[in-house]
Amino acid sequence: MTGPFTPGSGSMISPTLEDVLARARHVAVLTGAGVSAESGVPTFRSAGGLWEKYDPQQLATYEAFSQDPDLVWSWYSWRRETIRGVEPNPGHYALAEAASLFERFSLITQNVDNLHRRAGNPEVHELHGNIERLRCIDCGTFFHGDEAPPSKQAQRCKCGGLIRPDVVWFGEMLPANELQFAQQAAANCDLFLSVGTAAMVYPAAMLPLTARQHGAYVVEINPEPSALAHEMDECIAGASGAVLPVLIDTARRHRSMT
Ligand code: BJW
Ligand code: ZN
Question: Quick check: CB of 170 below 6 Å from ligand 1?
Fold first, then answer.
């Protein structure tokens, strides 16, 4: 691993990364909660990432939902409202621009917050679902978040079943088509960016490793080293809202020269 390159101490883009950016045909990006932190969306594990006195990792399970549906419903209701009240940040917009810079661009996110789409990314692969999509646990009917006004009480479907967010909780399978897309993108890309994720949750955390095993140049963008920082080719120690615009600017400059 080279680096870490710290923004503010000269150029944050290493000569190797600059060269990779100039030549990459397929770029794959995995984002996590950190990419939305600068928009004001709390992360899961960092300081300030907690909700009231609860550990998000204990709320994001089907067991928690079946034991106390109102508690888990309130948490998602609160998060849905928070997310609706924020805007994409420069990191999201830089990734939206990146989509048209490379021959192939694969955006894979663990986030459920829609901010990549709101920033203009035409194609977003959501590994952990979407907070605005809800479904009945009994009959499987889907609902939109708009149909569920903010409330502290879990809502029920016409059939009587509890309605849950259509997100992936611990112990649940990821959507097979999205996971397969992500694994293939990781295996086929030239450059893989792991942005704003603590890289502690699997199988998403396998993706940078898959990319590296298949010969991609793998770069982490995070103010703190993630659990997999030692597995990266390069770590850029900085906030995604500051680093991504510079990185995409560098790519754009090289692309316009060729
Ligand atoms: C910034 C920043 C700035 C701050 N700029 N950066 C293999 C090994 C070990 C365990 C397992 C394994 N395979 C499966 C497991 C079990 C489990 C797991 O991984 N457990 C680990 C905790 C050990 N995985 C699962 O259960 C998964 N399912 C599965 O594998 O199915 C198959 C199976 C089933 C049954 C049995 C066995 C296998 C499902 C995982 C689902 C995760 N769901 C959640 C909730 C989604 C819905 C919701 O949003 O509510 O997903 S949990 C939560 O964690 C959420 C996130 O997407 C995910 C990742 O979090 P993320 O994005 O990394 O956020 P943080 O907060 O942790 O980190 C933020 C980072 O940002 C930090 O690093 C900051 O420094 C940084 N940051 N500001 C850039 N400005
Ligand atoms: Zn139902």
Answer: yes
